[in-house]
Write a structure and sequence with these properties.
There is one protein chain. The longest helix is centred in the middle third of the chain and has 15 residues, at 170-184. 45% of the residues are buried. The strands form 6 sheets. Strands 15, 17, 18, 23, 25, 27, 30, 31, 32, 33 and 35 form an 11-stranded mixed beta sheet that branches. A hairpin with a 5-residue loop joins strand 11 (135-137) and strand 12. This protein has helices at 85-90, 170-184, 236-242, 261-265, 389-392; strands at residues 14-19, 35-37, 41-48, 51-60, 67-73, 81-84, 101-104, 107-110, 114-116, 119-126, 135-137, 143-145, 147-155, 198-206, 211-218, 221-229, 243-249, 257-260, 274-275, 279-282, 285-288, 292-294, 297-304, 310-319, 329-337, 346-352, 355-365, 372-376, 384-385, 403-404, 408-413, 416-422, 428-430, 433-438, 450-458. The chain folds into 2 domains: 4-184, Jelly Rolls (Sandwich); 198-458, Jelly Rolls (Sandwich). The protein is mainly β.
Length: 467
Amino acid sequence: MTDLRAASRLPAWRTLQASGYDRGGGFYDSGNFLREESGPRYVLMEAKGPGCIDRMWFTRKSTRETYDLLFYLDGEAKPTIRIDLDSLCAGEKAPFSAPFVGSVDLARYCYVPIGFRRSCRVLLVPTAAPEVYTRRENSAGRQIPHVYYQITYRRLRDASVRPFAWTLEPEEARAQRAAAALWNAAGGEPPGERAGLEERVAAVEAPAGGEAPLFDLPGAGVIRSLTLRLPPDAGARRTAESLRLEITWDGASQAAVSAPLGAFFAARDPRQAVRGLWLGSANSVYYCRFPMPFRRGARLRLRSSGTEAVPVTAHLHYSPKAPDVRDGYFHAAAYDHSPPLGPGDYSVLSVRGRGRFVGLVMDRPGNMEGDDRFYVDGEAEPSIHGTGTEDFFNFAWGFAHLGAFPLHGITRHYGAPVLYRVHLPAGVPFERSLRLTFEHGHGNEHQGRYSGTALYYAERPAPSQAR
């Protein structure tokens, strides 16, 4: 949470998720708990350790429907954590504090890590009068509470993880302050990030229907920051869609990064502020701070499909030192379904080899109700199954609620939503393959255009996708 550079490492943990998706395959994505205990008490998650919860997201119909969250760690008879859901995400009790917790309307999110060594059990307990709660009948004919949830966690190999404690150790308190300073600087230059880096500047004109070279870096190194300044005029929308960023690593025959600027930087209009920690835009400047290691050279280009030449000024900061052996190569794969081909899940990413998924941009999100599904290493059933597109991006109840935060956001460009979410610090590691799809069918046959960019690191410098 404090080290931007660590994003490119290919870790050994497994990322999993507990959620309330409809087990019957329909759209009843609320109230589907592991089970209901007397009280009532709803079991949301049960996991064996060592592990760590990295992200939680919740929503329900009304703030009058109050709940307590209970976390039983490592087999303890009493909950280590018992806290009101709204209080948790309002930052009223440390270490659950901003910017790691927050809310937008009825959506609640939390990125405070909750470690456990042997086991973790999470329960939801109603605390208001029974008549306050909204219930509905699910596909199995049961009356269920109208609560949606996602709990994303890691299964770790290292048993030395420290279980959550309300009182932080001095080292943990320093780390939380450092992470807060970094996250609060989203949209600006992260503190100390340019120390010891070399700078390159390129002022080019991307020709109509042609290619403009930006940078050719020989040898080994790690790009730490890339910015592109575009003309601040009324043609910004056309420019963001007609210019494509392409980056090739180590002389590969294919570009590992190949995406339109708007879909890569999560902003179809660069004049609008989208202040993410890892990528975004401000004052007609696009920026990306994902570390990009290379071992034998890097080649950056702009390719234009427009009808007019566009002047662009690019700044790049990089370290000429060789990458770590654990570093992967940064990839950005554009997807575009225009329109989707009938009912059935549509593919966002399908890649072979070893790597780590780190984020997703949707510059045209189509219909809001599609569940995300991550199939890791050839799984028959997804180890991560979401509850709806806006839920995936930590929002709720459609795309009308807006905000730009360090790791996620929904902004509006030319009257249409643009969505982004970075899956760090955990990401979704894979050893052999990863397939990410979004639901499209069962009454969700929206014929709008679905497009965006999937962001990931891979062991190889060129994409190896199974289409």
